[in-house]
Structures are given as C-alpha cells and as structure tokens.
Amino acid sequence: ITDHNEPMDPVHPRADGPRRRRTFTAADKIAHLTAYEQACEHGGGGAYLRREGLYSSLISEWQALVLRYSR
C-alpha cells in the first residue's frame, strides 16, 4: 500500500501532469482524412488510426465537416 500524499514517481508516464489535447489545423485534418481513406482502400484504416494515435470518431467528425462545408 502506498501513501497517497507522496509525490508521484518521476518515471510514471503522468508524473508531469495531464497531457494537453492535440489540436489540428484544417490542413492537418485534410491530410489525415486523405491518408486514412488511402489506407482504407488497402484494408489498413485501423492500423493508420493506431499509428497516428487518432480515434475513428475524429475521422467521422472531420468527414462531416467536409460534407457540410463543401456544399
């Protein structure tokens, strides 16, 4: 049992606090969508998401934005 009042171990991944969320520019989003769609053509969509650390919900959100603003 550890004392919860002790400072975190510096080798712990979150010892320096929570990470900031990544932000993506419009160009980043388009680049990820293009690369993801290309990966999906060859059955590698899931691998692309894992490699880039992205969630499928982000891709869906970005695809909806493209549809909405391409009209």
How does this model look, in words?
The mean pLDDT is about 85. This protein is an all-alpha fold and about 70 residues long. The protein contains three helices and no strands. It has helices at about 25-40, 45-50, 55-70. It is extended. It starts with about 25 loop residues before the first helix and ends with a helix. About 55% of the residues lie in helices and about 0% in strands.
Structural key phrases:
single chain, 71 residues, mainly alpha, 3 helices, 0% strand
Termini separation comes to 59 Å
Radius of gyration: 18 Å
Q: Based on DSSP secondary structure assignment, what is the total number of beta strands? A: 0
Average the pLDDT over all residues and give the rounded result.
86
**What is the beta-strand fraction?**
under 5%
Structural class: mainly alpha
Shape: extended
Q: List SSEs in N-to-C order.
A: HHH
What percentage of residues falls in helices of 4 or more residues? 40-55%
| Low-pLDDT regions | none
Number of helices: 3
